[in-house]
From TrEMBL:
Record-given protein name: Histidine phosphatase family protein
One Gene Ontology term, aspect cellular component: cytosol
Domain of life: Bacteria
Active site per UniProt: H9 (tele-phosphohistidine intermediate), E82 (proton donor/acceptor)
The keyword Protein transport is annotated on this UniProt entry: no
Alphabetic keyword roster: Hydrolase
UniProt-annotated binding residues for substrate: R8, H9, G10, I11, T12, D13, W14, N15, R58
SMART domains found in the cross-reference section: PGAM
Record GO terms (molecular function): fructose-2,6-bisphosphate 2-phosphatase activity
Length: 189
């Protein structure tokens, strides 16, 4: 059995402004750092053995804060990056409508498709579950990658809630993936 804790990175200024981040390397803001510290404190109650992160700074800094508290070295993997959002990166909804019209979502704007995102997430999860059997592994990534990967891993669980910044979702693999905790951010209360 392997236990995986999927963590969405702390908040950024672009999250607050509702700007599409995608592969843009946007750092955490001070609130995001405080959220990461709160999660790190919460995670000290479990003996996590490994921590992996997207190489984008908002996820990596979240992971570094957690890893430092837990005495773990963060390893990065590009497969854990957020979806590539092409031409819409850096824009708000209003800006997209002004630039491309209200049907902008139907245009070919270089946005990575869901299957490609799921393939990246599943590839990483498969590698971890095969190589780290019996271990407890934290993975710090991004909302779209985690959300879409969860739909594939645990289709029997309602995963429609928008993932909160620094929320944790805990899965365990027995005969199939089971969800022990979903999108929990009680450490922020």
């Amino acid at each position: 059995m392997v236990i995986i804790g999927l963590v969405r990175h702390g908040i950024t200024d672009w999250n607050i402004e509702k700007r599409v981040q995608g592969h843009s390397d946007i750092p955490l803001n001070d609130t995001g750092r405080k959220q990461s510290c709160a999660l790190a404190k919460r995670l000290m109650n479990v003996k996590w053995e490994y921590i992996y992160s997207s190489d984008l700074s908002r996820a990596k800094e979240t992971a570094d804060i957690i890893g430092q508290s837990l005495g773990l070295t963060v390893k990065t993997d590009e497969r854990l990056r957020e979806m590539h959002c092409g031409e819409i990166e850096g824009t708000t909804l209003d800006e997209r409508i002004i630039k491309w019209g209200s049907t902008w979502e139907k245009l070919e704007l270089g946005i990575e498709n869901d299957e490609a995102i799921i393939d990246r997430g599943m590839s990483f999860i498969s590698d971890i579950s095969n190589s780290l059997t019996g271990k407890k592994v934290l993975i710090v990534s991004h909302g779209a990658l985690i959300g879409l990967t969860l739909k594939r891993l645990i289709p029997h669980v309602n995963t429609e809630d928008h993932l909160k910044n620094t929320s944790i979702t805990v899965l365990s693999l027995k005969s199939k993936w089971e969800c022990e905790i979903y999108n929990c951010a009680r450490h922020l209360q």
